[in-house]
Amino acid sequence: MAGTASHGVVWVLIEYRGGWPLNGFEGLDLKPETKALVLSAAKAARARVLLVRRAGLRRREGQSRWAVLRHEDSGAYRQQWGTWSRDEDLAEIATALSLPGTPGHPPVILVCTHGQRDQCCAVWGRPVGRALSERWPELVWECSHVGGDRFAANVVVAPDGVYYGNLDAESSVATVEEHLAGRIHAEYLRGYTDLVPAQQAAVAATLRRFGPAGRNDYRVVETSRDGDRWRIRITGRPPHPVSVDVELDARRAPPSQLTCRGPAVSSALVYELTSISAV
Predict the structure, then answer these.
(1) Is 143 found in the same domain as 97?
(2) What is the pLDDT of residues 90-134, one digit of tens each?
(3) Would you say residue 213 has pLDDT above 70?
(4) Angstrom distances, CA of residue 192 to CA of 74, 87, 235, 243
(5) Who's near 270: CB < 8 A, 6+ residues apart?
(6) Band of residue 258 on the pLDDT scale cut at 50, 70, 90
(7) How far apart are CA 233 and CA 241, in angstroms?
């Protein structure tokens, strides 16, 4: 599972209380010019656009919310929030994508429940969404497709950019609680979204070997590749190891059906740890 987080450091969240189409925001029945403006601005910012809603009973009244979330290279994150009731209101997202946003907001916890995309996400995701929203009602949103349906239930902490997978109600609460306390564990970690897959797997291996750490306690500083062999150096903040060297082999797993809805078998790329040492 390590090394499977989708890339992204900018997130656009749009609350939508109706049914979610297979292709999410792109499939909504909105004014074409508004939708084109948002998608164009998101593409320019390399932002991921997700539909969101609160877990449990869907409220129909009142304005819906939108947000632009950013994770910066320094490890800081910024957010900008707004509301919308008419299609035209969503044009504000394009403006927000051109601005830095403001610090100080708590992170957002996203649970993929996009059953139209893959029923596994709804079956496994909704119980996780309910459990997390009971614990953190203001932070938790159900969301549309985030990738990796085979790892449902999937949880993304944004704009931290941390993917977790294979969660259930109990493990999700414990995992998010540890995350919010600055202790990311390797057990359910899929990866950090600002890293390429091999780097994600190297960080997960480091957490597994040397114990949990905060989101910004480790930094990838060197990466080299020789065929299927990856060599990655990671630096750590005290009390973690100052420097860790990780070697991984990339290989194809045996063919299997990767998603509940997948019509054919496919072979996933996985990263196998060959060595890890603190320098």
Answers:
(1) yes
(2) 999 999 999 888 887 899 999 999 877 778 888 888 999 999 999
(3) yes
(4) 14, 33, 16, 19
(5) 3, 250, 251, 252, 253
(6) low
(7) 12
What confidence tens digit (pLDDT) does each residue in 81-92 have? 999 999 999 999
In a domain, 24, yes or no: yes
pTM: 0.93
The tokens describing 31, both together, are: 């004014």
**Residue 100 covered by a domain:** yes
Question: Look-up: residue for tokens 């957002």?
Answer: 108
Q: Which of 180, 214, 238 is the last residue of a domain?
A: 180
Please check whether residues 115 and 172 belong to one and the same domain.
Answer: yes
With beta carbons less than 8 A apart as the criterion, state whether 116 and 20 touch.
Answer: yes
Per-residue CA distances from 260 to 168, 197, 244, 257, 273 (Å): 17, 23, 37, 7, 28
DSSP letter for each residue of 207-252: HHHH--B-TTSEEEEEEEEETTEEEEEEEE-TTS-SEEEEEEEEEE
Range of the domain at 137: 10-180
Contact predicate 64/17, CB 8 Å: yes
pLDDT tops 90 at residue 204: yes
Q: How many CB atoms lie within 10 A of CB 226?
A: 7
Tell me if 2 is assigned to some domain: no
> Could you tell me which of 17, 143, 1 has the C-alpha nearest to residue 69?
143
